[in-house]
Design goal:
- The protein is of the alpha+beta class and about 240 residues long.
- The protein is about 45% helix and about 15% strand.
- The chain contains eleven helices and eight strands.
- It has a six-stranded antiparallel sheet, sandwiched between helices. It has a two-stranded antiparallel sheet with strand order 5-6.
- It is globular, with a radius of gyration of 18 Å.
Length: about 240
């Protein structure tokens, strides 16, 4: 059964360096006083306006097979297609930081306050990524609670539109998970409203399987390789900290 996950906004405030990195601001410029002031303004506004919340549901491999297949438009070399049948656990998730942030960014652009609008948009994007990571930790916590001696494993998330998983898979994902209950709407374009929302599947299994799958031809066109950086580990030493 899906369960709603409240997220404290204080726990998903991005570090300034991650925001400037997302905006491709050189490290040498990030320490400029005007940029620091701008970053503080954007972060303060984000903290005041964001309302992060998520929904999570464990799903069997058989159930996920149909959701992954979607409308049959996946890349044949999708690493997720190789990964999911071999994973120990899978969970669908969706998370958002709310509509007010997007509205505020639009208002700032309309007022031609381009610097603050751009900074706030970047802070919101990074905050949404942090909220997605919180969903991973929530799933890990539930697994460790059910199996205290949970074996070492790796954890990573995949989203429709990335890694060869076609965006139209959102239709079945939404039908199964029903994130409408936390205010996330699927548009005809398969994009989500609020815009600062992320959905997908969290995979838990062998680190070697995940890393080997991420060398597929579909991965060669990826410019970020961020999935490799996002792989986290469950080990006996980490169990008490998850």
């Amino acid at each position: 059964m899906a369960h709603v996950v409240p997220i404290a906004v204080e726990s998903v405030i991005p570090a300034p360096e991650s925001v400037w990195r997302a905006l491709s601001v050189p490290e040498s410029a990030a320490d400029h006083q005007r940029l620091q002031d701008l970053g503080r303004q954007a972060t303060d506004r984000y903290q005041r306006l964001a309302s992060p919340i998520g929904i999570l549901q464990e799903i069997s491999t058989d159930e996920f097979e149909g959701i992954f297949a979607g409308e049959g438009r996946n890349d044949p070399d999708s690493p997720l297609g190789l990964v999911y049948p071999l994973m120990r656990h899978l969970a669908l998730f969706a998370v958002t930081i709310g509509q007010i942030i997007t509205d505020e960014v639009s208002t700032l652009f309309d007022k031609r306050d381009f610097a603050l609008a751009t900074a706030l948009d970047a802070v919101a994007s990074e905050g949404c990524e942090l909220a997605s990571s919180k969903m991973e930790r929530e799933f890990i916590h539930s697994l460790l609670a059910a199996v205290p001696s949970f074996p070492a494993a790796a954890v990573v998330r995949f989203s429709p539109g990335y890694c060869g998983w076609h965006l139209t898979a959102q239709h079945l994902l939404f039908q199964f998970l029903q994130p409408q209950c936390i205010g996330i709407e699927l548009l005809n374009s398969c994009l989500m409203k609020p815009l600062k929302s992320i959905s997908g599947v969290i995979a838990v299994g062998s680190k070697d399987i995940l890393e080997n799958a991420m060398t597929q031809p579909a991965c060669l066109m990826c410019e970020t390789k961020s999935c490799l950086d996002r792989i986290s580990l469950i080990t006996e030493r980490q169990e008490q900290r998850v």
